[in-house]
Design brief:
One of its GO terms (cellular component) is ATP-binding cassette (ABC) transporter complex. It holds the Pfam family TOBE_2. It comes from Reichenbachiella faecimaris. The protein is built from eight helices and 17 strands. It folds into two domains: 230 residues, P-loop containing nucleotide triphosphate hydrolases (Rossmann fold, 3-Layer(aba) Sandwich); 70 residues, OB fold (Dihydrolipoamide Acetyltransferase, E2P), CATH 2.40.50.140. Helix 4 packs parallel to helix 5. By secondary structure, the chain is α+β, with helices and mostly antiparallel strands. The structure holds adenosine-5'-triphosphate.
Length: 309
């Protein structure tokens, strides 16, 4: 279990990156940390990894208190692996040597067995003797992850691990890597900007807003019951609407074009998105167009009726 109690961090330049952040995460769960740029996500990961000092509060991983670089000659902990955004494999080392780097002290046979098992989990058994430059971006990312977990950490802290991958590859690599980490029973904390990924993968979601904890919960709960518009936005599009002088927040899938619908709108734009159209509606009293999903293309300027599910 990871337990944070009232963690605060102000950098030397006076920037308050985190303020009184508290939460708990169960072992072997995958937790996504979401939040705007500058909301403190990376700072949070580094404090949990013991790579940054908090100015206040405590971090416990199971029974052990995690402290920052000012308490250690060599910052960080062997059982907490932090993988930064700009991870680097050693380009002049083979895949096998990259994975084996952190376990060179293991007995030879144990080390070989561990590398073999990790290569199998990454589905890269045949690449042991290749060099990173001979691999695709996604394959390199899988090797970087295998290298990060080679010495059997309890916790892996990943800072935007999939952001450099293009879309078709991203889903596959993410599945492989998260699958591998789940198989190994590792607790995962992951910073991401991708709502679809967080919904599909996370057991828990933590949303940070200007260094404060905005919301924590499982994806379904946070998606359906966001605490604020800020929290709602991180898990998918949301419309802020005014009806009968009341402000409401409605997901696009809850707006249904329906001739018997109670509300009237004018189609502003209809964009083909593959599975459906993103249709923007102009609704009285609402200065901004409202997004809904339609199966068919609706002509610009048409008047439609809609209902709310
Ligand atoms: N080493 C540092 N020294 C001073 N200020 C810093 C340092 N690192 C981060 N900050 C500031 O602390 C705040 C939080 O930064 P952090 O990198 O944790 O945010 P983030 O949510 O990870 O952002 P992004 O999504 O852009 O990576 C920002 O205002 C940032 O400018």
């Amino acid at each position: 279990m990871i337990k944070l109690s009232k963690i605060s961090k102000t950098y030397d330049n006076g920037v308050e990156a985190l303020s009184q952040v508290s939460f708990e995460i169960k072992s072997a769960e995958v937790t996504y940390i979401l939040g705007e740029s500058g909301s403190g996500k990376s700072t949070l990961l580094k404090i949990i990894a013991g790579l940054e000092d908090a100015i206040d509060g405590s971090v416990f991983v199971d029974e052990e208190e995690i402290t920052g670089p000012s308490h250690h000659l060599v910052p960080g902990y062997d059982h907490l692996a932090y993988v930064p955004q700009d991870f680097k494999l050693q380009q002049f080392w083979t895949v096998k040597d990259n994975i084996g780097k952190k376990i060179s002290h293991y007995p030879y046979e144990d080390k070989e067995a561990r590398i073999k098992m990790l290569l199998q989990l990454c589905k890269l058994e045949d690449y042991a003797d290749r060099y990173p430059r001979e691999l695709s971006g996604g394959q390199q990312q899988r090797i970087a992850m295998a290298a990060a977990v080679a010495d059997e950490p309890d916790v892996v802290l990943l800072d935007e691990p999939f952001s450099n991958l293009d879309l078709p590859m991203k889903a596959e690599v993410r599945k492989e890597i998260i699958g591998m980490l789940r198989t190994l029973g590792i607790t995962v904390l992951l910073v991401s900007h991708d709502p679809a990924e967080a919904l599909a993968v996370a057991d828990q979601i933590i949303i940070l807003n200007q260094g404060k904890l905005e919301q924590q919960g499982n994806p379904v709960n946070v998606y359906r019951n966001p605490k604020s518009l800020y929290a709602a936005k991180f898990l998918g599009p949301i419309n802020e609407m005014t009806f009968e002088k009341k402000k409401v927040f409605i997901r696009p899938e809850h707006l249904i074009i329906d001739p018997k619908g109670k509300f009237k709108a004018t189609v502003e734009e209809c964009i083909f998105m593959g599975m459906h159209y993103h249709t923007y509606l102009l609704v009285e009293q609402n200065p901004n167009p409202i997004l809904c999903y339609t199966k068919v293309e609706l002509k610009k300027s048409t008047t439609v009726q809609f209902s709310i599910k």
